[in-house]
Amino acid sequence: MRGREPFGYVIGIDASKVTLNLKDTHRGHFAAHRDGISAVTEINHLFGVEDGPRILILKVISLNFVEPKEVHKAVGPKTRIEPEPLRQLNAVVVGYIEKHEGKLKFTADSLVSPALGAEAFPLSEEEIRAIFSSQKKTLEIILGYHPKTGMEVKVDLNTLLSKHVAVLGSTGHGKTCFTASIIQQILKKFNRPRIVIFDINGEFLKALEVYGEIGKEIKYTELGNNFKIPYYALGRYGLQRLLLPSEKTQRPALNFALDHLSYVKWFSEDKGLD
Question: How far apart are CA 29 and CA 39, in angstroms?
Fold first, then answer.
């Protein structure tokens, strides 16, 4: 932490929540140090707290004034010099960094906690790379890019596949694209990997065609026969029971389509809609 000024100190620990007081000398969301400029108080950003031979990594979850009413007093005319209202930062521990054989190693651990009075510092670029990069370079894949720093977020493939993983998000947020990107990297980096995909909506075949010939390297199997359902016989309620649309996104779209179905005409010769 040499060459970096602390911007706060720990004053409270409540289970996984850590509270820090921000120093009066710190302003804004960023801190300058000899390694550059780092964001320290923006929501979801990371910073470090000294803990002996290691650095605890904390993530910002909220900011607040201890006495919000005192802030309004500074707006009116001042008859005397008043101290600025105390600002506090709430964070959670996500892991720690320590040196191993001359290299920085990040370990995810939410059970460790800092000592009271421990000072908080901005992270250097080397420390941020240690957090977002995997230890085994030959088995790492890219999950994406950090939205603030632009750094690649990498993970060791064995670490990823040894646990249950869920990709969550609303409709259209890129769950399929993200999963296809992971599979493409595995096919590109590793020799003859074996992957089984239950492709319910038929979305992954086009993403995998460039990595092998269908029927040889890539085996594509359709289970069951093609069934046709007379949707007009189900009605609005029956379609909702069949499709199970999400409340906020898919159900309004389905209702809109059903309401305007009378305006759609099918041309059998051109095989198109108007």
Answer: 6
DSSP assignment of 13-39, as one string? EETTEEEEEEPTT--SSEEEETTEEEE
Determine if residue 56 is left, alpha or beta; phi over 0 gives left, psi from -120 to 50 gives alpha, anything else beta: beta
Report angle CA 179, 185, 191 to the nearest 5 degrees: 125
Per DSSP, 86 falls in state: P
Q: State the DSSP code for 262.
A: G
Strand 54-65 versus strand 46-51 pairing type: antiparallel
User: Judging by beta carbons within 10 Å of its beta carbon (0-12, 13-18, 19+), is residue 130 exposed, middle or buried?
Assistant: buried
**Phi first, then psi: what are they for 36, rounded to 5°?**
135, -145
Nearest CA to 97 out of 124, 116, 118 is that of 124
DSSP 4: -
> CA-to-CA distance for 121 and 39, rounded, in angstroms?
11
Query: What does the block give as tokens for 54?
Result: 């290691």
pLDDT by residue for the chain (274 residues), tens only, comes to 666 888 899 999 998 899 999 888 777 777 776 666 777 788 888 999 998 889 999 999 998 888 766 555 555 555 555 567 788 999 999 999 998 888 888 988 999 999 999 999 988 888 888 888 776 666 788 888 877 677 788 888 888 888 888 999 888 888 999 999 998 888 888 888 888 888 887 888 888 887 777 667 788 787 766 667 777 788 888 888 888 888 888 899 989 988 888 887 776 666 555 5
pTM: 0.62
DSSP string, 109-170: -SS--PPTT-EEEPPPHHHHHHHHS-S-GGGEEEEEE-TTT--EEEEEHHHHHTS-------
